[in-house]
Amino acid sequence: MLTQDEANILIGLPKVKKYDDIYAFPSPGDTLMVPVISQNGLENFLIDINRGRIQITKCTYQERHQERTILLRLDIDGPPHHNPYVETLPLPDLEPYNGRIIPCPHVHLYVEGFMDKWAIPAPTDKFPNTIDLFKTIEDFLDYCNVIDKPKFWRESLNGF
Q1: Cα separation of 95 and 117, whole Å?
Q2: How would residue 157 be classed by pLDDT, with cut points 50, 70 and 90?
Q3: Across-strand partners of 120?
Q4: What percent of the chain has pLDDT over 90?
Q5: Which Pfam families match (predicted)?
């Protein structure tokens, strides 16, 4: 398990695409894993995109470290998330969300001792149009500090 400081450092690291591949944005019901690495090449990450099968507007974008630790997750058009209620907050910024139900879109954050069990409302300045799932991957990559982004295309438009 990571400490909070370690997680914050990993989230803040500048990241770059691992390969020059062009990835097909997943169709409803599909999942895509895209590898990215830290700019210095020392840390490996995965960006996951998981599309809803029945509710096609539902989508999850996730940044993982070393394939297993979720650092950030953006949920769009899914169920609301119920945050834990704790007497002693693990992070002071979580106070307004302690024990609260957070509707979508929301961002799950790595919190030491809780993993990804805490969520906050998705910041509208970072995610201005979550209805456009294709544009939102670019916003999520920015949020994850991916400075040299992998390329995506969407089959329905046959464009990058």
Answers
A1: 14
A2: very low
A3: 107
A4: 93
A5: DUF6978
Decide if 36 contacts 43 (C-beta within 8 A).
no
- Nearest-angstrom CA–CA distance, 140 and 48: 11
DSSP state of 20: -
What number of residues does the chain have? 160
> In the chain, what are the domain boundaries?
4-153
pLDDT tens-digit readout, 69-127: 999 999 999 999 999 999 999 999 999 999 999 999 999 999 999 999 999 999 999 99
Whether 148 has a pLDDT exceeding 50, the answer reads yes
- Say what the pTM is: 0.94
* Model confidence pLDDT, tens digit, residues 101-114: 999 999 999 999 99
The pLDDT score that the predictor gives to residue 159 is 42
What are the C-alpha distances in Å from 87 to residues 7, 16, 24, 73, 148?
A: 23, 39, 45, 25, 41
CA–CA dist 155, 160 (Å, integer): 9
* Unique residue bearing structure tokens 């500048």: 14
Residue for token pair 């979550």: 130
